[in-house]
Write a structure and sequence with these properties.
Elements: H1 15-40, H2 44-68, H3 76-104, H4 107-146, H5 148-158, H6 162-184, H7 188-215, H8 217-225, H9 232-258, H10 262-286, H11 293-313, H12 316-324
Length: about 325
């Protein structure tokens, strides 16, 4: 599929680059599959070891490149190939076992399960697409209306909150299978207790992080922004609010995923994307690029409220019965 890049005009990718893209994507997908399976099987120590080994390999490759590789050789194909090799080395020990398991799997059982899985996966793809439109669509719209410099200011204000989103992703990988088990066993008390504690925990973490950022702002503004990004304070404040709402929506959305309500969850993201684009259009008409983050906040709030309604009205026993019938 990486050779589809040949069809995109203007890219000018050579066969070497396209092959490197395909190798990187396929090795990353295989390693990500192994990581997700390790999380489901609660092999978190093994996962930590594999991730640490991957970071070690990348650091060794960077040091080797710095000291021994001609800078003229450093291009996209070289970098992607190096990352793909690191992926394959980390996954090599599990490769034989996975191939053997696939060959010995009962294909008739897989065939019977596929229609239900595909129905859920298709709605999940809709949710992913609309979430991307909601959270990143502003980049293209702001770039078209206000120019790339305005996008740079917005992204500069967002840079501090990247680690918080990584924490949300890590929490979701561990909590999703556990919530699924609680939903399957109809343990609603434990299910909702875990969601409430998680949401409150993320609120506390975001508040503490924002206070620390505010206290350190004079130093950060002087050394990281300066006069080049004058007035970025408002953008940072808005991203702090957007990150908080995003994490609340993500945690509650994982609860909906655990109930296998992918269609309902996808519709909440569609609603959020529509509201986000409407607010962004109003911001563009007003000509205030700094307020573009408000569109992200509005979309996240709308999606969060819809998800809260789903969780408040869902009865786990009936949800699982319907899901089993897919």
């Amino acid at each position: 599929s990486s050779y589809l890049f040949c069809l995109v005009p203007g890219l000018g990718f050579h066969a070497q680059t396209i092959t490197a893209i395909g190798l990187y994507l396929s090795s990353s997908l295989f390693r990500e599959y192994l990581r997700n399976r390790a999380i489901v099987n609660r092999k978190l120590v093994l996962l930590l070891f594999d991730d640490g080994f991957f970071v070690y390999l990348v650091m060794v490759a960077m040091l080797y490149t710095y000291y021994f590789v001609d800078p003229a050789m450093l291009n996209l194909a070289f970098c992607l190939t190096a990352l793909a090799v690191a992926n394959l080395v980390v996954s090599l020990s599990a490769f034989y076992g996975e191939i053997k398991a696939v060959l010995q799997s009962p294909w008739h059982c897989c065939k019977s399960l596929f229609p239900g899985v595909w129905k859920e996966a298709s709605w999940s793809l809709v949710g992913v697409a609309t979430t991307e439109a909601q959270n990143r669509g502003y980049i293209f719209v702001v770039g078209a209306f206000f120019g790339t410099s305005a996008v740079g200011v917005l992204q500069a204000g967002r840079v501090f909150f990247g680690p918080l989103n990584l924490i949300t992703s890590a929490w979701g990988r561990v909590a999703r299978p556990h919530l699924s088990v609680l939903a399957e066993q109809n343990k609603s008390d434990g299910f909702y207790r875990l969601l409430r504690i998680s949401i409150l925990s993320f609120i506390v973490v975001n508040v503490i992080f924002s206070i620390a950022l505010w206290l350190a702002w004079p130093y950060l503004n002087q050394h990281f922004f300066g006069e080049q990004y004058a007035g970025v304070e408002l953008t940072v404040i808005l991203w702090a609010v957007a990150t908080l709402v995003f994490q609340i929506r993500s945690v509650s959305g994982i609860g909906v995923q655990a109930c296998r309500l992918f269609k309902q969850l996808a519709l909440t993201t569609v609603l959020g994307a529509v509201i986000s684009m409407c607010v962004l259009a109003a911001v563009c008409l007003e000509g205030i690029s700094e307020l573009s983050v408000v569109s992200v906040i509005a979309g996240e709030v709308a999606a969060s409220l819809s998800i809260f309604y789903i969780l408040a009205t869902a009865k786990l026993s009936k949800v699982i019965e319907v899901a089993r019938g897919l």
